[in-house]
Structures are given as structure tokens and as C-alpha cells.
Amino acid sequence: MKWFACCVLCVASTVVSRGEIRVEESDPRITIATPQLEAAINKKGYVTGIAGGSFVDKQTGFHDAGFGLDIVDWIMEGGSDEAYREQLPKEMVYQFGNAYHGKTAKRSIEGPQICTQAKELSPTIIRGKDSVAIKTEWKYRTAAPGKNAGSKWEQTIVFPEGKRYFISSDRITSVNDLAAPFLRLDMPGHIKHKGGDTFSEVYLSYHGAIPAAEFAASFAPDEKFNYQRGRDKTPARFIRAYHLRDPKTGKDGPWLAGMTLKPEVVTEAWCHERGYVCMIEEFGPPAGQAIKAGDSFSAAFIVGFFDSIKEMETVYDQYAGAIGLEASEKGWALTR
Fold it and tell me: Is the CB of residue 83 less than 8 Å from the CB of residue 153?
């Protein structure tokens, strides 16, 4: 599958090379190219994370098969919004008891959904010694009754030289006192397909390998392949991956994995069929830990291409336990 992301042409653009990494910034997006990868980060439109279809493994020519990677939604908590639903902006109403969201009652604390509603972000490019980092932040604009708007979301994405993966972290600094908040995102990202033509199997470290045929018909997120903290055993590694397949030839390519480096922060993880394979993940503070206004919670991830599950596990173990990511011109470091 020889497909490569094209840089967006724009009259006013900036091109910067540092070592083996080339960065081009134009009005709508930032593109990154290394000897191993290509990727784009949208500044306008459908934003946050890596733009869908832009993440390319130069070794094989395969690219991600979804709407984007590390795509971010709302700050949420458990419980229903039914008692005050008529007071909520439309984009914050959370319907449950259906095939899209399952039976578990949840509600949005702050919104709107960043990826679809922020519309425009202003990422900062940081050129390190052996890496390039992209940092983005945004403040939520709406809140549930009795809650304040204005919590800050921060995302840091680092592209290290010589790697087929990037490292990322999402962090929330809350303006509210909350008993058990969580942030919803896509990790690694959803899978577009027609009868399993773009992937041959899914791997979930808390479940095992799942053939593409299991996603032939729609099912609810809590019906199969669902992980919930407290109900299920916490895995030693939290890895979610899909094995790419060339839709024209049927030939398998690399795995595309999203790895949450501290399993204990994951509150729930979905892997279900709803016209595409939906790979939603939610993370929050450690179980039982409330937060006060001004407190933060975060998670750190490795997202990229791997030739085997064993390779994923080896890379995971190098970074295991991290919950944050810092980047500057001096370099980058995961934090615990």
C-alpha cells in the first residue's frame, strides 16, 4: 500500500529541518517528516492529535486507517445528566443505553468536544536536539450546571529521531472539584473498514488477539472486548493495536499500536463496531483519588508502527510507568 501524506501547499509556510526531522508549517496544518515516518497535525477543522490518514510508515508504505490518532473529546464523570439535560448545550448532552455508548451512565462535565468543536488551535513547535515536539493547549468553553468552564487541556507530541513511533501525553488542569473525572480520547484511533479490508486482527493486552471477522456486525461498547477499571484485572501492559492490511491485495502490513504507559490510569476502554471499529479510551486520576480546582491529571502514550506484539512489549517496558511528557529545546522526558 504505497500511500504517502502530501504537505499542504500554502503561500505562507515555514520549513525547518533539525537533524533528520523536517517540519513544515502552513496555515491549516503542521507536517512532520523523518526517515521513518510522516505525520500531520491539523490546526483547523478536525483538530487534536495526528490527522487521519497522515501517519505513514515509510518502511512499509502503510498508514493509519482511521480518523486520527490521540483525538480528544470531553472531560467527563460517571452518572446521568438526565435531571438537567434541558439546560445543557446540545454538544454536551450524553445519551446512554444505546449501541453507541452502551448502558453505563456518564455525563460531560466540560465541553464542547475539542476535536469537532474547537475548530482552530495554535500548536507550538519545539525543536530539540534529537527530536521535534508539538505542544497544544485549549480551554473548555462550556460546563454542566454547578460547574465552571475553563479547565485546560494540554497535549504534547514528540517525534524522536530514528523511531517508527511518537510519544504523546494529554493533561487536564481542572477548574472544578471533582470526585472521579476522566478524559475521553481515541487511542490509538478508530479503524475505518469495509468487511475488515483494512485490518486483519486487533490485539488488546487485556483480552488477546481478535480476528477482523468479529467486527462484521455492530455491537455495543459494553457487549464485547470492553475493559473497566475495578471490574477487570489491571493488565501488566495496556496495549491496543490493529494489524494493518492492504485492502487491494489482502497482504498484512505492520501493527499500529497505542500504548498507555501506566495501566492504572485507564478507567474504561472500548473496542466495538459501529460502522467502524471504535477505539475509545478514558483515563483519570488513580482510583479513589478526587481532585480539587487547580489539580491536574494526565496520561502518557506510545503510538506507532511495530512488526510484532513482542516488539510492542519490548518498547512498552522501556517507558512503562510514565504518566506525563515534558519537551524543550534541551530534549524531552517522560514523567512519573
Answer: no
Q: Which helix (H) or strand (E) covers residue 312, if one does?
A: helix 309-319
Q: Name the grid cell of 9.
A: 501547499
Q: Answer whether residue 335 is part of any domain.
A: no
Task: Enter the C-alpha cell of residue 3.
Answer: 500511500
Residue 120 inside a domain? The answer is yes
Residue 286 three-state SS: coil
Our CA angle for 29, 33, 35, nearest 5°, is: 170
**Does the pTM exceed 0.85?**
yes
- Which residue range forms the structural domain that includes residue 265? 14-328
Is the C-alpha dihedral spanning 87, 92, 98, 103 positive or negative? negative
pLDDT the model gives residue 16: 58
Each residue of 179-229: pLDDT tens digit? 999 999 999 999 999 999 999 999 999 999 999 999 999 999 999 999 999
Copy the grid coordinates of residue 258: 497505542
* 8 Å CB contact between 22 and 40: no
Find the CATH number of the domain harbouring 70.
Answer: 2.70.98
- The answer to whether position 200 is within a domain reads yes
Report pLDDT digits (tens) over 16-38. Answer: 555 689 999 999 999 999 999 99
- Which run of H or of E encompasses 309? helix 309-319
**In angstroms, what CA-CA distances link 81 with 24, 94, 145, 221, 323?**
43, 7, 10, 20, 30
- Is 2 among the domain residues? no
- R_g of the chain computed on alpha carbons: 19
Provide the domain count of the chain: 1
Q: How many residues are there in the chain?
A: 336
Pull the grid cell for residue 191. Answer: 479503524
